Amino acid sequence: MKKIDIKKNKGRIIFYGIVLFFLIASIWSWIPVTERFSLDLIPGDHVPVRIALITDLHSCHYGREMTSLIRRVEKEDPDIVLLGGDIFDDKLPDDNAEYFVEAMTERYPCFYVTGNHEYWSERVPELKEYLKCIGVTVLAGDCSTMVFDDVMLDICGVDDPTRMTNAGWRGQLDRAYSLTDDTHVRILLSHRPELADIYEEYDFDLICAGHAHAGQIRIPFINKGLYAPNQGAMAEYVSGIYELSNGTLMEVSRGLARESTPAPRFFNRPEVVVLDLY
After folding, report:
1. What are phi and psi of 179, to 5 degrees?
2. Which sequence spans correspond to the domains of the chain?
3. Which fold does the domain 6-277 belong to in CATH?
4. What's the CA gap between 136 and 111, in Å, rounded?
5. Rounded to whole angstroms, how far apart are CA atoms 205 and 55?
6. Which among 19, 134, 217, 265 has the fewest CB atoms less than 10 Å away?
7. Tens-of-pLDDT digits for all 278 residues of the chain?
8. pTM, entire model
């Protein structure tokens, strides 16, 4: 009679269970989600303004000619689309990003700032020119005012600091802020969330950022990233709304990168962020 090694079988079960768990988690982490937030930023009684925040697309694939991502945004019917950097990648071709951005500009006012991967591609001037030609407002130390009924939004933006000196980047931020009006809702679009201590020196109402990818592996329940670029281990600003010390709200998108990443996401689904300003 053959002797059954119970310990060996138990070990195999545990091993295959762990492999199955990570396989399911990897597949689940490829499925995008829409995250919605309501923010009390507009005094008085007004119709809300809806913003769709798209970051870190990295030219990744979302259906033929990006139809699944385009439909996801269309379903939310935003008033404005903010493109928060790394929409294009430094390795993947531009086709997917172009399909998506061109569809957005046909439907909504779009605002864009650069990300680090776009600088790594060494094509920032070319990408900016393309975006301007299709109708995107490219922000680089600039501010654009949008009017919705009697609600005024100042939308500011700064380049990613990858190829800039600290003085040059701060110069852009100072210039953008100087163009705002303290009676308007003041919004800053910036790729980098880890610069929160600098943002606290200004009185923006809302900052929209990306870059962290939720640390690629997001730790459930405590909402920290195992490791995020430029934040290191146990990264703090990785996903969702944060209130800074000066009262400014900062939304950090997990972004939409999938096949461009070197490792699967865990507990960290790619997202489209929708912000309703009340």
Report:
1. -90, 0
2. 6-277
3. Purple Acid Phosphatase; chain A, domain 2 (3.60.21)
4. 6
5. 19
6. 19
7. 555 566 567 777 776 766 666 667 667 778 999 999 999 999 888 889 999 999 999 999 999 999 999 999 999 999 999 999 999 999 999 999 999 999 999 999 999 999 999 999 999 999 999 999 999 999 999 999 999 988 999 999 999 999 999 999 999 999 999 999 999 999 999 999 999 999 999 999 999 999 999 988 888 889 999 999 999 999 999 999 999 999 999 999 999 999 998 777 888 999 999 999 99
8. 0.91
